[in-house]
Amino acid sequence: MTTKLEVLQLALEKALGEGAAVTAALGEVTVVVKAADYAQAMQTLRDDPSLAFEEMIDLCGVDYSEYGEGTYDGPRFAVVVHLLSLANNWRVRVRTFCPDDEMPIVQSITPIWRAANWYEREAFDLYGILFDGHGDLRRILTDYGFIGHPFRKDFPISGYVEMRYDPEQKRVIYQPVTIEPRENIPRVIREETYGMK
Question: What CA–CA distance (Å, rounded) separates 20 from 95?
Fold first, then answer.
């Protein structure tokens, strides 16, 4: 007797073919597709009646530059999408790696799921991942004048600039960061008589 997870895994392998790597671990199924096959695989996941992933739950970017304590030697950026099939009551995680670390780009899936619009904008804003075919790819969480992408592992914790209101100019201005770099290690304060009461 096969479990529901095995049925899903077999259906994914049959529908997506050899272009996708399907794995199951810890009660979850993950599909890894190449960036060139990403949009077509997502279309298949939605339209194939044996899968019927009609709802996109989440989309996010990932920066693997420090993964495995620096031992990872693969593409730096990935896009991860979580899908839900209400008809079959199952979920799947789809991961695709951006082929170019300097210019991370994958195809937009907004024509397939309109809900991907803001998620793709968020991944662009925070990681700098570009989505080809997205109709309105602009910042969504940071300021329009913001420089860089704050969720990248090489982005400094204190940022590059800070902003403040200048009463003389009567506007918000940007200036270099004035915060001194510091260690973020918690101090442990022990009392001599702790727990002796």
Answer: 10
Tell me, what's the pLDDT at 12? 94
Give the CA angle between residues 111, 136, 148 to the nearest 5°: 125
Looking at the DSSP bridge assignments, the partners of residue 94 are 31, 81
Whole-angstrom distance, CA of residue 76 vs CA of residue 169? 42
SS3 of the chain: the string is CCCHHHHHHHHHHHHHHHHEEEEEECCEEEEEECHHHHHHHHHHHHHCCCCCCCEEEEEEEEECCCHHHHCCCCCCEEEEEEEEECCCCEEEEEEEECCCCCCCEEECCCCCCCCHHHHHHHHHHHHCCEEECCCCCCCCCCCCCCCCCCCCCCCCCCCCEEEEEECCCCEEEEEECCCCCCCCCCCCCCCCCCCCC
Rounded to 5°, the CA angle 167-173-177 comes to 115
152-187 pLDDT, tens digit per residue, is: 998 887 777 888 899 999 998 888 877 776 666 666
Q: Which two tokens stand for residue 155?
A: 């982005």
